[in-house]
Specification:
Helices cover 14% and strands 42% of the residues. By secondary structure, it is mainly β.
């Protein structure tokens, strides 16, 4: 299985088991760094209206610009796994349901022609500041009633743990040919993941002017 296929399979597995909350008996990330970890610098998520082809009215999206630098001493393979969870239970995976026109609009708006989307960020991370990559995570709009959301950023660390499930579950995996298959899993692999928790105003009229406030930044196993 390729790196991309393995990532998709793992993402599907984790979503199928962890969306409703922390796994029973899930481990905590190490306090002292025990594995390699990429540097991750980010900006506060922002809302933006974009006229998408085929839509009569501009659509609202959210985007977070970030930079990843490899100072681990070795080249690393980076696969960004960035997911937004609202306090009302909605899930938005970066790039999912986002027209390429939104990405192009943000590049032009920020005057950053080299800004990368999730696909562009995926691949080998060479060492050093000169080889840092700037990316943007884009999400479709979410519930106006949500007074906050969490953004989970995976793929930054080499720290993983295997957790046995109380009961086996069925999950869908996708191979390198894009074919889906259902398999039974009795354990899940959790990776060290950055969790960013934001609070946000819920008034509809101020949505485009919303300025999320960072409430907490921590590392979890997910």
């Amino acid at each position: 299985m390729t790196h991309k296929a393995a990532y998709i399979a793992l993402a599907g597995l984790l979503l199928g088991t962890l969306l409703t909350g922390p796994t029973v008996g899930a481990p905590e990330p190490s306090q002292a760094q025990i594995e390699w970890q990429l540097d991750f610098v980010y900006k506060t998520p922002k809302p933006i209206f974009v006229k998408v082809p085929g839509k009569a009215e501009p659509q609202l999206f959210w985007f977070m610009v970030y930079k990843v630098t490899n100072r681990t001493g070795e080249d690393r393979f980076f696969v960004p796994d960035i997911v937004l969870y609202t306090k009302t239970g909605q899930i938005r995976r970066a790039g999912q349901g986002v027209n390429v026109a939104v990405y192009e609009h943000i590049k032009q708006l920020l005057n950053e022609p080299l800004l990368r989307d999730n696909v562009g960020m995926t691949g080998k991370m060479l060492q050093g500041a000169d080889n840092a990559k700037r990316g943007v995570a884009i999400f479709t709009d979410f519930d106006l009633k949500a007074a906050g959301f969490d953004i989970f950023v995976g793929g930054l660390s080499g720290e993983f743990a295997v957790v046995n499930l109380p009961t086996p579950i069925e999950v869908t995996e996708v191979n390198e040919d894009g074919e889906e298959r259902t398999v039974t899993k009795s354990s899940v692999v959790l990776g060290r993941t950055l969790k960013l928790s934001y609070g946000i105003r819920t008034e509809a009229r101020s949505r485009i002017e919303a300025k999320p406030e960072l409430k907490d930044k921590t590392w979890v196993m997910r």
